[in-house]
Structure prediction request, 360 residues.
Amino acid sequence: MEVYNFSAGPAMLPKEVMENAKEEFCDFMGTGCGVMELSHRGPQFMEVLATAKQNTRDLMNISDDYEICFIQGGASMQFAMIPMNLLPAGGIADYADSGTWSAKAIQEAERFGKVNIIGSSKSTNYDRIPLVRHWKPSENAAYLHITSNNTIAGTQYHTFPPVPAGVPMIADMSSDFMSRVIDVNDFGMLYGGAQKNLGPSGMALVIIRKDLAERTPDTVPAMLRYKTYISKDSMFNTPPTFAIYMYKQVTEWMKNKGGLAVIEEINNTKSEAIYELLDRSGFYRSPVEPGSRSKMNVVFRLPSEELEAKFIKEAAQNGMSGLKGHRSVGGVRASIYNAMPLAGVEALIDFMIEFEKKNG
Ligand SMILES: *Cc1c(COP(=O)(O)O)cnc(C)c1O
Prediction:
């Protein structure tokens, strides 16, 4: 049976990528060694790294003002690295609080300096993106931090907030990185854990405007300085070579698909199909304010928790796994990142219609 994995992360990777990685696992490009066994300074891996970076530049149209870094520790490490490097002593950083992950980023920043919560949707259980026109920016914020897609609550920014001149916007894009066309020049830095849309867990992709890396205080250790990753091409120490190799494969797959504009169209089609069903059904219900709905993580409720448990169990028996909502909010969550084919979404919709017929 074909299995469609709707897990929020680590999440499914494109089938073609998995097959190709399998082929190359023990013998990478005729070397007789797997890519994991090769020196990170040897020509084969250097080529992998260069291609991974070039693919990123091509896909997102990134200028030379920015550097692309691969940093271990996932997105959570970035929650700390950002204020360590970019929030000067006595400075203030603006953070939008749109969900669990924003809250974690805020918690880390508060260790280093003053945080101004510029807007929050906590009082409505994070059912929306905080209304931008109510935001109150600080004077001279070191940066503004947002979470572009809220993996747990199922919300997403459809447009990005305006920022005062000179304030770099930093976005945690862990769960919607490269899922749509964006203008990188609107941001000072973009980052995300790779395991949602880009590859294996444990590594963050960081795209940072190079001038920002000059702000880091001298007390920050080498491994936690952006400048180290920029000046050493992410190879100050041994980088996560297998994760970078997989990321290279995934970005190649994206290019072969036709790039982010094509991928965005497919993502729109997939998410709209599910939301359309939720809206016309009296059985399923979206808890998310319509203007804030995520195209990556579609969360929904059934009439009771018993029915939700039954739905998740029967879906798994029918080849659709990973549909359980995050333990902090319950319900059902269909994570439909780039790698989820339209056929997987169609299978889910067919199952939902059948389930409603039997249990509605
Ligand atoms: C998954 C996720 C994280 C955490 O990523 P790790 O790599 O596990 O640290 C942070 N932010 C968002 C939006 C996420 O979805």
